[in-house]
Structures are given as C-alpha cells and as structure tokens.
Amino acid sequence: MRIIHTSDWHLGQYFYGKSRAKEHQLFLHWLITQVKQHQVDAIIVAGDIFDTSTPPSYARKMYFNFIGQMQALDCQLTILAGNHDSVAMLGESKTLLSGLSTHVITHVHHEVSIEELAQKLSEETNNEVNQTESPSKLESTEQVFAINHANGQALAVICAIPFVRPRDVITSKVGQSATQKQQSLQQAITEHYQKLYQYALQLVDNIEKAQGSRVPIIATGHLTALGVSMSDSQNDAVRDIYIGTLEAFPSSAFPPADYIALGHIHRAQKVGKTEHIRYCGSPIALSFDEAKQDKRVLLVDFSDNYLNSVTDLTIPCFQPLLMIKSTLELLPEIIEKSLKALSIDSVNNHQSDIQADDEKQSNNTVWLDIEIAQSDHLSDLAFRVNEIVADLPVEVLLVRRAKKTRQQQEQGIATENVTLNELSVDEVFSSRLTELDWQSDEALARKSRLSVLFKQVALQVTAQSNTKQSELLDAAVSEELAQVKKGESQEHTEKNTVQTSSSKSEPSE
Q: Distances in Å between the alpha carbon of 446 and those of 83, 433, 452?
C-alpha cells in the first residue's frame, strides 16, 4: 500500500494582501500528477485545509474539485480539521463527501469508552460479518475506520485524530492554574489516542480473521510535538493562545501505530528521531520565515503490511519569496546577488518536465521582505526602496527596520524615529503597556491577562477583516483565473484555425 501524507494547505490565504490562489492551484495540479505517477492508494491531509474559518468561495471550489479528481483516480482521502479550520464549515459537506471515498473528521468524539467500543465491535462481528462481506463493514466510529482497495479488501486502519480543542476532551475546573490545565489537556489527549488505538487493534484483529492478513494502523494528529523546530509564524502563535492549545505533546505519549501523520508545524521533520512519526510541513511558504525551506509531501510505502519507507517528494516553488537584510546603500547589490542565487537554486531543484511546465505558469516576480539596518528617521523609506527595485523582477511586500532597532524602540529608545507602519499590532499594544507601572504580583497578573485578552480581540478583528477582504478579492481572483482559461482557449482556437488554413492551402492531388 502507498499513501501520501500532506498538511497545512491554508487554502484562501492572503499574504500581505496578495492572493495565493495560483500557487495553491499549481500545487494541487502537481499533487494529482504525483498520485498518478506513483499509483497512490490514499492521501491523508493532516489539518488546516483552509486558512480561516470563512474561506473565500474560490478556495472551497479548489477543495471540492480536488476531491472529485481523487475520486476519479480511485484514490481515497482522509481529511482532518486543523486549528484554522471551521468545524461547522467542514462538517456541512462530510456526509456528501463520504460518497466520494472521502472521510472528513472535524472534531474528536470522547463520549464512548473503550469497553463500549469493544462491545459494539463484538456485536458487529457476531451479527454482520460473513464470508461475502468486506472487512470495512466493521467500521463503527467516525475516528477509526478501514481504507479499502477497489476490490473491497482492507488496506489499513486509520486512527483519525484532528485538532483537539480543550472543550472536546476536558471540563474546566475552578481554581486550576494554567499549568494544571495543560497537564489535564495532555492527559486527556493521551487517553484519547490510547482509546482509539485499542479499538483499532481489535478492528485489525477482525480484518485479519476475515481476509487472512494483517493491515497497518495509521494514526494522525494536528498538534505541536515536543522538541520540533517551528517557524516564526505570528498568526499561528496568536491563534494558539486564543484556543488554548497544548504547548507540546511528548512523542512517547503517542500509541505504537505503524505510522503517525502529523500536521500543524510548517517545517517537514521527524519527531523524536523516529522514522514513523512525521510532520510533512506546508506545501507553500506561508511566511517569509519559511522562504528557504524545501516544501514537500511524504510518500509512505507499506510492504507486507508494515512500514517500509518514507520518501520526500519535493514540491516546486511556484512563488519565490526572499527576506533581504541590508543597509539602504547596499540594498541594490544584495538584491541582485540574492536573485542570482535564487535562479541557480531553481534550476538545480526543478529538472523534470512536469515541474518545468508548472514553473512557466507560476509568477516569476519575487516577493520581498526588506529589513533595513538603519535607525535614522526616514519618512520616505518605503519610497526609496521602491525606487531602488523599480527595474527588477520583484515586488516589495514589506519594508521594516532591523530587529535590534525595533527592540530599542520597545524599550523606549529613539521612539521619535518610529513610524506606525513599522510596528505590528502586538508591538503597539506592548509599547503602551511599558508606559504603565507593573510592580506588584497582582499588577503583573493583570498585565498578562490584558495581553491575552488583546490577542483574542485582535484575532477576532482580523478574522472579520479577512472575511470582508476575501469577499472583495474573491471576485478579482475568479476573474483573473477566468482570463487565464480564456487565454488558453483563444490560443487553442487560433492554433486550430492556422492548421485548418494550412490544410486548405495545400494542393490536392
């Protein structure tokens, strides 16, 4: 059996006001090609399908079109909700999509005990299983199920755990400290994994009796595992505080499944130096911090129903990003060197015909984040930078001062040189808090609560703003994609016209 492990698509993301629609469309096209080329049996998407709880309509269209194309290829899908996804939005179509060989798991179900699951499984085994029935008939919970071959034989058992929201697994208790709440959440998540794994073992047992061979158990998760390397995505950090997610889940607390497909961290990596617990990372760079990462999906092979190999399938870079750190004087030289290096890397990394075709369709303009190491007051900094890059194949999305300068500004040094557009919302609020006197323990606790409350409000306002922005940009993106299709259609028509004219002009024998 062969699966592809992917996660954190963030369909519908707007990046400093720029739509990622073309990049996501090219990625999905590339992914479909990999499914065909490697004869993949199933895909697991480990959370964060969408970037917000209210994704634009073009993002939903991409999602449903992709599912339809997978159905045509007899490739099954398991889709897990992440912390960015709306449980309600994903849940509204899950029943319909189940008819397209797609399992959508929106939230955890903790109300059933292991004993009840075992009893239910036993009853199903006694009452339903006979010589002609498929082992998949043993499925009896939304989170534990078999994925099957076209001939009806079970290929694997999935323990599908989406993003775990505290309210789904624990009840808040009066007087609990933040540490105690974290410990309670970790214990509850551990118990949930173990409960589903025990049920999966019994399901595997029954499948083995029915078809004469063992099948592997594949678990999933959308969380932060202990010891992983994270990207500095501020949006993820704000969202984590808002929903009260677990800070880090120890790898030793995972059950001994054959493979554990994780999402939430955007950098591909192994967990706890293991081969079978993996993050695949996001398919495109979702922040400038991720610009230098090679994005990938993981091709997971099982031989004799045990994990055999995990292979990286490197995704082409459809939209290059660059983070430039320089003084204003050296900026032209550094940008030129960076663009040359980027061009060389692109040639070395993308050699196949399919990748070359995808690259032609992508945007060749490089998006820049420029950090200027200059503390002098320059009210026309953005204007000067744009003048410097005017003749280069780049677009400047962000201009800011160096981190050291910003730290001085936070400490109240040289604040007269700061312009508001250089500061994030959090930095503005933090700067205001530093002006007040926080001496006593009570005052410090109040400061901490204010910071958390502010992040919650900022998140809600950002979500509302994104919704309005998505409605405005959705029409623009749809029109742009329509123009691309129209251009392709016209090119095809012109080619046919030329061929027809050519054939008519040839003398008849």
A: 27, 11, 10
Give, as one character, the DSSP assignment of residue 393: S
CB 322 within 8 A of CB 1: no
Structure confidence by residue, pLDDT tens digits, 447-505: 777 887 787 787 767 666 655 555 565 666 566 656 656 655 665 666 565 555 555 55
Alpha-helical regions (H) of 411-440: 425-434
- First-to-last alpha carbon distance for the chain, in angstroms, is 58
Q: How many CB atoms lie within 10 A of CB 416?
A: 7
The two beta strands, 18-19 and 321-326, are: unpaired
CA atoms within a 13 Å half-sphere pointing along the CA-CB vector of 244: 18
Segment (H or E) for 211: helix 178-211
Output the furthest CA–CA distance in the chain (Å, rounded): 103
Whether 321 contacts 311, CB under 8 Å: no
Contact indicator for 382, 353 with CB cutoff of 8 Å: no
pLDDT of residue 131: 41
DSSP state of 80: E
Q: Which two tokens stand for residue 457?
A: 């409000």
Q: Which residues of the chain have pLDDT under 50?
A: 128-139, 232-245, 347-348, 350-362, 413-414, 508-509
What six digits make up the tokens of 276?
A: 């079978």
Distances (CA, A) of 169 to 46, 160, 361: 19, 15, 45
* Element holding 442 (H helix, E strand): helix 441-505
Q: Give the pLDDT confidence score for residue 139 in this predicted structure.
A: 46
Is 250 within 8 Å of 194 (Cβ atoms)?
Answer: no
**Helix and strand counts by DSSP (H, E) for the chain:** 14, 17
Going by C-beta distance under 8 Å and a sequence separation of 6 or more, which residues neighbour residue 447?
433, 436, 438
